[in-house]
Amino acid sequence: NKELLVIAQDSTSYGWDLEEKVYLSDLLVELNTIKEIEWIRLHYAHPAHLSKKIINSIADSEKVCKYVDMPVQHASDKMLKNMRRGLGNKGIRKRIKDLREKIPEVALRTTLIVGHPGESEEDFNILKEFIEQIRFDRLGIFTYSEEEGTIAANLEDEIPREVKDQRRNMLLDIQHEISIEKNESF
Asked: How many CB atoms lie within 10 A of CB 90?
């Protein structure tokens, strides 16, 4: 079996930099016609750029895996704004709803960051509730750590390591239960 990975930090902005703009949906339609390729897996669909056109091309392409890795990072509007994610909680939920309506069998994976500078207990609770309600198929959770050259590197990392770890572990426990339930349904 030959699988093609379409991978970029934000694959959903494919073609925007070209003189004659093309879009990820165009690429997926074209790749779907290549006989030698059996599966196409798309990585890192930024929620703010995941258009209906892209969702439709995933749904309509038999070779594109019905698996979307959409790194949402957080669910609190305040934190999403601080992280410059381009969409708030409501917008992310809308993208997920659109995906699940158009592709009912879609498997969703995301990554989240806990302990980002300024994350309050309320922000964390919004994130926790979001995970419980959305019920992702796969979930990666990272604790914030300062990365040189990022906007957040200038912010004071005031959340203690043990709080970050507690928050991460709490979310992992929730996801573990969701994964058990989903696996049992198979």
From this structure: 8
Specify the long-range contacts of residues 94-101, CB closer than 8 Å, at least 24 apart.
95/47, 95/50, 95/70, 96/70, 96/134, 98/52, 98/55, 99/50, 99/55, 99/68
Q: E strand or H helix at 3, and its extent?
A: strand 3-7
Digit-coded pLDDT (tens) for 29-65: 999 999 999 999 999 999 999 999 999 999 999 999 9
Contacts of 150 (CB under 8 A, 6+ apart): none
Report whether 67 contacts 59 (CB < 8 A).
Answer: no
Tokens representing 103 are 């592709």
Pick from 168, 110, 115: which is nearest to 145 by CA? 115
pTM score of the predicted model: 0.88
